[in-house]
Amino acid sequence: MGIPNLQIALDHSDLPSAVADIAKVGEIVDILEVGTILCLQAGEEAIRCVRALFPNKKVVADTKCADAGGTVAKNCADAGADWMTVICCATIPTMKAAAKEVEEVQVELYGDWTYEQAQQWLDAGISQAIYHQSRDALFAGETWGEKDLNRVKKLIEMGFRVSVTGGLDVDTLKLFAGVDVYTFITGRGITAAEDPVVAAQAFKAEIQRIWG
Amino acid sequence: MGIPNLQIALDHSDLPSAVADIAKVGEIVDILEVGTILCLQAGEEAIRCVRALFPNKKVVADTKCADAGGTVAKNCADAGADWMTVICCATIPTMKAAAKEVEEVQVELYGDWTYEQAQQWLDAGISQAIYHQSRDALFAGETWGEKDLNRVKKLIEMGFRVSVTGGLDVDTLKLFAGVDVYTFITGRGITAAEDPVVAAQAFKAEIQRIWG
User: Fold this and answer.
1) CA distances (Å), B152 to each of B120, B122, B144, in order?
2) Which band of pLDDT confidence, cut at 50, 70 and 90, is reported for residue B207?
3) Nearest-CB residue to B68 (from A76, A135, A140)
4) Pairing state of beta strands B31-34 and B58-65?
5) Phi, psi for A57 (deg, rounded to 5)
6) Domain ranges, ordered by start, for chain A
7) Handedness of CA A14, A55, A128, A92 (dihedral sign)
8) Contact A84, A60 (CB under 8 A)
9) Residue of A136, A126, A120 lying closest to B86 (CA atoms)
10) How near does any CA of chain A get to the CA of B40, in Å?
11) Searching chain A, which residue's CA lies closest to the CA of residue B44?
12) Angle at the Cα of A133 (from B160 to A62), degrees rounded to 5?
């Protein structure tokens, strides 16, 4: 079992505050995500800024791409992204078109996806999935539970490298002890902390304690 | 039966060429769409430019929002969009959160959605749907057929105002004769034409001929 990565999601609505936050903690975390909100607000400039700030880190554009996979992926790669996300209800041709242009594609799991579809993604050569507790579902009172953990485990058994995200904090990580999670993604768990550097270090230390 | 609207989708990868195209044909068409590719490349500036150019036209941000519906919708509205799109696999809380911030939300239909889900969208107060032939599916050789038309009709019977899009040209419109389509959406059907103004006028004239 590997040691899970820590990924920071920049879900800011403006580029200056995103740049200020990532400059503080980018070296501590493993993967830098230009979140969907930021992509839609600042466009490719957001990817370019994060890439310029951290030339050697893995950069993900969380486009949640549903169509025109080739064009979106080429644009993301041109701006400096290594990986990008596609939404689970995108068609296989969209996913394949995206996968040709970026190093790796990650499937974002929302709504009523099936393991049959998941197998099709694997068959199409896409082996990263992001298991999500929707922000809006969290606002509606839903939390991480046994059902979520079993789905994550099943996806890992199928052969996916699985990232988990949605309402994670340092205390939540131990729920996943014994599970071969590929990456933990958090946004405001770090950026909204009183001291983002301390928060990022606390995430890393807890991951090391449990999986190290 | 109403006369369908004509919507132009700006799916440019850069803002200057999008602005140049929309300036030519914006007055002819009914609805101006800032396409997903352009949203991801130019950010909110794209919405702001289209709004500034055409203060009195309906502007749609094609975000295909999958999460954080409230934030994405508020950002779109702040930039000047009247409507925005959500992806069909978004959760109902995401759709409802978006619907609070913009005038109307449109559900983009991709992949394996069901009529049961569609009824849930209606029950949540969302009555616009976009029936899509995926660009990547079109590239893979799929075309409009009886199956698509029956789905469009069924959605209209359920109570949706239905926009159709994907590989439409002036000759394709007559396939929909007798169907109460709310809006035809085309991008390069106008922008890639030798004369975009003539192309936009030809779309309008054909719609008038069939539904007028």
Assistant:
1) 17, 15, 11
2) very high
3) A135
4) parallel
5) -95, 155
6) 5-211
7) positive
8) yes
9) A136
10) 5
11) A41
12) 80
CA B96 to chain CA centroid, Å, is 19
Residues A118, A123, A127, A129: what is their CA dihedral angle, to the nearest 10 degrees? -20
Q: Domain A5-211 carries which CATH code?
A: 3.20.20.70
Cα of A52 vs its chain's centroid, Å: 20
CB-based contact A140 B93, cutoff 8 Å: yes
* Count of beta carbons in the 10 Å neighbourhood of residue B10: 26
Q: Please, are residues A203 and A9 in contact by the beta-carbon 8 Å criterion?
A: no
CB atoms within 10 A of CB A35: 26
pLDDT, tens only, A66-95: 999 999 999 999 999 999 999 999 999 999
Q: What is the pTM of this model?
A: 0.95
The one-letter code for the residue type at B54 is F
CA neighbor of B183 nearest in space, from B62, B52, B31: B31
Which of B12, B40, B91, B116 is the mutation pick for testing A, counting most A CBs within 10 A?
B40
Structure tokens at B104: 């109307």
Asked if this assembly's ipTM is beyond 0.85, the reply is yes
